[in-house]
TrEMBL record, chains A, B:
Residues 1-69 form the HTH gntR-type domain. SUPFAM superfamilies: Chorismate lyase-like (SSF64288), Winged helix' DNA-binding domain (SSF46785). The keyword Repressor applies. GO terms for molecular function: DNA binding; DNA-binding transcription factor activity. SMART domains: HTH_GNTR (SM00345), UTRA (SM00866). The lineage of its organism: Bacteria, Bacillati, Bacillota, Bacilli, Lactobacillales. It comes from Pediococcus parvulus. One of its GO terms (biological process) is negative regulation of DNA-templated transcription. The keyword Transcription applies. PANTHER family: HTH-TYPE TRANSCRIPTIONAL REGULATOR GMUR, MANNOSYL-D-GLYCERATE TRANSPORT/METABOLISM SYSTEM REPRESSOR MNGR-RELATED. This is GntR family transcriptional regulator. Keywords: DNA-binding, Repressor, Transcription, Transcription regulation. It holds the Pfam family UTRA.
Length: 243, 243
DNA sequence: CAGTGGTCTAGACCACGTT
DNA sequence: ACGTGGTCTAGACCACTGC
């Protein structure tokens, strides 16, 4: 691990433990450089990490302070979006029912979203995730075999993300998601136990590896009383758009 | 404007105009440093900007390439979320009806979201935004007078964001948003012309200035057939969470 | 004016991919 | 082996804030 990342982790922990309190000043960059026995530029790279995560506010002339909401931001960071399995890990019981698992050729829409040709086969996986035995989300994922291999129904009944990161040793990069509301369809009524008039929150996303290859196009549908997406935006990477 | 930001803008333009094509290599950092007559570190800071915006992919050993989707990412960046007025600027006609405009004291929920005391008065503004004469969104904003002053009903019928940035000369910083689906309420039926069974997409957000002060807590409700939120995530600032 | 963060340099070494 | 991007240094100057 690089020095500036180690320092960033240390500083994050100091905020988490209240060593640096919300609203209070951090030591100056020069003091931190002395403490960690490094240069000011390295401290600045560490502070960049905290700044990107919205944990600190830097003001030229007056110093660096711990951001308001730093504690709730830390909560969100600690359960970063890496699939439903990780989100609920330890707190709730997640079970997954694989409703469909097949390999087929992609339709034109999927070809476009995944940037693959019509001859590249894809996994088509439909899963129902339950949290504490209550239906939580209905997930339909398309993954190209050119990127993801050796996926089985058994793996799909656990965490596909863990399989990709740990077993295939691939690094997940950026994603683009569109969040919309919709009326319940037949499958929503059947599996999520939605009645007529009970809205669905749908998240459509394409997820990429860090090398830029798209590895998943999915549509996830939530009951409106169990769904919701939280987005944190900073001026640096203003990354959310209402359409 | 600092040198690295100028260079970042130049490089973004080269991607926009197709000078650097999607998937193709950029010149190496050394070549760029020579071209711009600067050091490699400055080029790297410029590339950080593009990387944060998901416009490029950097691979140790093999070089920097223009990201897939760079063109659609540019589209999104060019209409960053700065209020509905800016989003539709030039393309559609946005009109705003101010349905309620008052100054009052905040309730406990609003006090918490805006981090203000019970004695700090707030503006309470309810607005209906129409795009091309069709109802688009119903927006309920709470803003503390300790931050925003001299707001009038006339200003509210235009763009409050432009007023804050241009007239008050304040800089907008981070925001935190929660996106949910909901059933239509009385106001939705009245103003957004929703029927029973037509879902609402709701965005609740708290927006901060760059100095960390919260200046707006709002709830915006969209017709399900005219709403949607797009979110771009990168590993750097993974900033979205399903709850 | 003193102290803070922001920018920039010239050069060094390392980690990684490709050939 | 070579070229790429990643990290790091020691020092400099600038911009801004607050006393």
């Amino acid at each position: 691990m690089s020095q500036y990342k180690e320092i960033a982790t240390t500083l994050k922990n100091r905020i988490k433990t209240g060593d640096y309190e919300t609203g209070q000043h951090l030591p100056s960059q020069k003091e931190l450089a002395d403490e960690f026995g490094t240069s000011r530029v390295t401290i600045q790279k560490a502070l960049d990490e905290l700044s990107n995560a919205n944990l600190i506010l830097r003001r030229q002339g007056s110093g660096t302070t711990v951001a308001p909401n730093s504690q709730s931001t830390l909560d969100i960071l600690s359960s970063q979006y890496e699939g439903t399995t990780k989100l609920f890990e330890g707190r709730n019981k997640v079970t997954t029912q694989v409703l469909n698992f097949e390999i087929r050729l992609p339709n034109p829409h999927e070809q476009k979203r995944l940037a693959i040709s019509s001859s590249t086969p894809v996994y088509d996986v439909l899963r129902l995730r339950n949290v504490d035995k209550e239906p939580y989300e209905l997930d339909h994922s398309i993954m190209p075999l050119s990127v993801i291999q050796n996926l089985t129904e058994e793996i799909a009944s656990g965490s596909i993300y863990k399989f990709i990161e740990s077993t295939l040793n691939l690094k997940i990069g950026s994603s683009i998601r569109k969040i919309t509301a919709d009326t319940p369809q037949k499958n929503d009524q059947k599996y999520l136990k939605c009645n007529h008039g009970e809205p669905i929150l749908q998240v459509s996303q394409t997820v990429h590896l860090s090398d830029g290859r798209a590895f998943e196009y999915s549509q996830t549908r939530h009951r409106y009383d169990k769904g919701g997406v939280i987005v944190i935006n900073n001026s640096l990477s203003s990354n959310s758009l209402d359409v």
